[in-house]
């Protein structure tokens, strides 16, 4: 057997071989396209999905950013997502905004990378804030998505400044309008989400939906109106017809422009009632 003597090149060659192998691996990794590793849940563009992003595409409406004259007496709010990036909360507070909903999650794999800045920032300037979940009923169960939402910022605390979480039910940005579900199947999915949310937080979540989508995808179910507060998008001079089961709305999203300041909303009541909703 050969003996390695001082000055032998074999250890150096061995080390060089290892380095070259590592560089080859690194080069391969860098040249592999990001698309080769698909997202869990198959969510191609969650940063483009926010409350109302699909409503305006499917239902249209006027969204000038100006508040309708019929709602001047109610409390002003905004909703934001990663689409807005870091939000200037002190500026919004100075303009009269007093509450905010922040997108936390979508499906069971996406979390808003700006969530902390948006959720804590709105709270720190004095706003009452809440989180919302963009639902993908075709990807996983309602319970799975409720748990993911709660575990990633969608919980609730009785501090007087945290609203119950909101479930965003709207048109599918990735395929079939109703996510491949029958009306009864969609109602069951929503019940699975809402009951799981209540069992873990003690609160009934707010439901965000349009009357048109609700009629199409739940058969205009009246199963939730007596329990879950309604957050309704409609971009015109009034709220218009409500989904079955709800005698009144709690929040009206009256713009969906995707602007840097977020979409604007009105709470249907005075500031003390908004705080009562937060307190439960």
From TrEMBL:
<feature type="signal peptide">
    <location>
        <begin position="1"/>
        <end position="36"/>
    </location>
</feature>
<dbReference type="InterPro" id="IPR008270">
    <property type="entry name" value="Glyco_hydro_25_AS"/>
</dbReference>
<dbReference type="Pfam" id="PF01183">
    <property type="entry name" value="Glyco_hydro_25"/>
</dbReference>
<dbReference type="InterPro" id="IPR002053">
    <property type="entry name" value="Glyco_hydro_25"/>
</dbReference>
<dbReference type="InterPro" id="IPR017853">
    <property type="entry name" value="GH"/>
</dbReference>
<keyword id="KW-0326">Glycosidase</keyword>
<protein>
    <recommendedName>
        <fullName>Lysozyme</fullName>
        <ecNumber>3.2.1.17</ecNumber>
    </recommendedName>
</protein>
<keyword id="KW-0378">Hydrolase</keyword>
<dbReference type="InterPro" id="IPR018077">
    <property type="entry name" value="Glyco_hydro_fam25_subgr"/>
</dbReference>
<keyword id="KW-0732">Signal</keyword>
<comment type="similarity">
    <text>Belongs to the glycosyl hydrolase 25 family.</text>
</comment>
